[in-house]
Amino acid sequence: xxxxxxxxxxxxxxxxxxxxxxxxxxxxxxxxxxxxxxxxxxxxxxxxxxxxxxxxxxxxxxxxxxxxxxxxxxxxxxxxxxxxxxxxxxxxxxxxxxxxxxxxxxxxxxxxxxxxxxxxxxxxxxxxxxxxxxxxxxxxxxxxxxxxxxxxxxxxxxxxxxxxxxxxxxxxxxxxxxxx
Length: 180
Hints:
The protein starts with a helix and ends with a helix. The chain has helices at residues 2-6, 8-21, 23-26, 36-40, 43-59, 63-76, 82-99, 102-119, 122-138, 142-158, 162-179. Helix 9 packs antiparallel against helix 10. The chain is mostly helical.
């Protein structure tokens, strides 16, 4: 079970999958499940404000607060709104890294990779694979760094993102040096 294995990020994904199957969510009415003040306004607008608050908290060195804001934004966003969910999940990966929440970060990265694969967009694939490679590097599993970093380099090359390619090559070089 993803929730038991990975915690809150996976719970949001499973909740999103269940909600997407409910009739009121298939037709875009997300207000029925929103509590209090979020119910009065537009859920997309509220999610945007929570995302901005999370980014500000992260910049101010308050990752725990940022996590709360990002989780709330994800709760408000429709499961099918991958365009809006993407930057929140990407920022959440950084927050979870800062908080040292390895399992939650891994689950978040799985969701990020799933969204990137579903979109089929190379810029997202490159970022998701890079984030996964960095996760393995941070956890000391240098052998596990190599497959996702290669996939990131390939995806970045397909879209001509030289900066991302260079960054990924640095990650790969670091892993190879540590492997000896």
